[in-house]
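Field log, afternoon session.

UNIT: design team B
ACTIVITY: writing a sequence onto a fixed backbone
BACKBONE:
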């Protein structure tokens, strides 16, 4: 009996060790702070990928909120790397600049949307940098964005940049340049908070009309009970600090992330 008991204990230890090793070896993320340029402007991004995965894989651009390239944008890039992609959290404001209050954030974001050429150049600098990575399949590039970044990725796709898909999370829907009919091949995923006070029904209707008119593939998902910044766990504290209608919604966050994965699987497997 004693020998049997000892054998069982040894077997259990072996199983636990195996599970532990598998868990450790699941991913081996390589994280790099990188620099690249748009004309003379220095841009500072964050590149991450799983080194255990061999060969080329799709590349995903992550466009930050109006706060700039902060830890939240980096965390989303890491999550994408864990899914098997090479992700670049890019810098739209230059020199890795971030804002710690809504006034500066509004100014930084407005500087881009009032001079779209600057925004296009900075996005394309990141796009080309990502495509040049040895482990990236340059024919399979997509982009995701949050709030300000959501508006950016929708705009970049609408002007015809070669992206397999874009996913906007609680992003701006205001039409900047309606896509031209039958010229945009990108698939658009819009994940919106149904109770987001920054997005109006008129904007939603206009967006859908533009997509339908231009014959663009898209999916628009409204998450009940979700308001602005519903994917960001820090949204509650930011909302309270600056008296803004922001709040995290775990259900909408998880569901929208799964929706994005479905879209990427579809467009990259085609």
């Amino acid at each position: 009996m004693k020998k049997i008991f000892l054998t069982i204990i040894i077997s259990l230890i072996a199983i636990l060790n195996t599970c532990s090793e598998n868990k450790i070896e699941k991913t081996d993320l390589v994280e790099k702070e990188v620099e690249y340029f748009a004309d003379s402007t220095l841009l500072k991004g964050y590149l991450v990928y799983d080194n255990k995965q061999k060969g080329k894989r799709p590349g995903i651009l992550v466009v930050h909120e109006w706060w700039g390239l902060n830890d939240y944008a980096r965390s989303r890039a890491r999550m994408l790397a864990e899914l098997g992609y090479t992700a670049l959290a890019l810098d739209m404001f230059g020199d890795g600049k971030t804002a710690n209050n809504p006034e500066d954030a509004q100014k930084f974001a407005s500087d881009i949307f009032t001079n779209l050429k600057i925004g296009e150049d900075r996005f394309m600098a990141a796009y080309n940098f990502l495509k040049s990575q040895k482990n990236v399949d340059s024919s399979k590039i997509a982009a995701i964005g949050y709030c300000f970044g959501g508006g950016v990725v929708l705009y970049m796709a609408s002007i015809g940049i070669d992206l397999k898909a874009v996913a906007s999370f609680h992003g701006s829907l205001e039409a900047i340049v309606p896509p031209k009919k039958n010229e945009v091949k990108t698939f658009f995923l819009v994940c919106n908070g149904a109770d987001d006070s920054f997005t109006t029904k008129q904007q939603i209707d206009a967006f859908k009309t533009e997509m339908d008119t231009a014959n663009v593939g898209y999916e628009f998902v409204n998450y009940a009970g979700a308001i602005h910044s519903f994917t960001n766990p820090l949204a509650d504290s930011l909302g309270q600090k600056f008296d803004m209608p922001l709040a995290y919604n775990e259900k909408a966050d998880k569901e929208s992330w799964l929706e994005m994965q479905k879209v990427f699987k579809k467009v990259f497997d085609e």
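LOG NOTE: Residues 29-269 form a domain with the Rossmann fold fold (CATH 3.40.50.1820).
NEXT ACTIVITY: expression trials, pending approval
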